[in-house]
Amino acid sequence: MDEKVRHILEILENDARATPEEIASLIDMSAQEVSQEIAKLEETGIIRHYKTIVDWDLVGENYVYAVIELKVTLERNQGYQAIAERIYKFPEVRSVRLLSGNYDISLTVRGKSMKDVAFFVAEKIATLDQVQSTSTHFVLKTYKEDGVILHEPETIKKLPVSF
Q1: Full-model pTM
Q2: d(CA 71, CA 74)
Q3: pLDDT tens for residues 80-91?
Q4: Closest among 94, 102, 99, 158 to 133, alpha carbons compared
Q5: What structural domains and CATH numbers belong to the chain?
Q6: Bridge-partner residues for 111, per DSSP?
Q7: CA–CA dist 80, 75 (Å, integer)
Q8: CA atoms of 41 and 28, how far apart (whole Å)
Q9: Do the beta carbons of residue 128 and residue 78 sit within 8 Å?
Q10: Three-state SS for 17?
Q11: What mean pLDDT do residues 77-100 have?
């Protein structure tokens, strides 16, 4: 891949709102050339989606996230792709990943409560024929999401001391 195109991708990955003019000022291309390259990258599927990362805690929405690990048994003539496709269609599922190690697949899911997530796992995931076992880990706090720090480090405030 051309180095300039790689640079465009890195810039957009860090800031999807970067304009062709801003990108052009960082690399040796015109804004029109940058726009054309971005259009090609979108057409070929290299750029899949533009995303906004929202700190829902600051909005006041109390979503519950969980990481769910699955051990699966593959069906005859079907690989992990078939089970992944079945799982990623659920609207609660935010990500699906194939793993190495003790578990085969990892899901990140979102619900309105721990109970919602538990019911999702019990009723929709654990009941799938290919799923042998699950291990659910509730996310207590997210510090960084897709490379973006969500919470600024807390500074320790010293209390004044008087004698």
Answers
A1: 0.81
A2: 10
A3: 999 999 999 999
A4: 102
A5: 3-43 (1.10.10), 56-143 (3.30.70.920)
A6: 64
A7: 9
A8: 18
A9: no
A10: coil
A11: 95
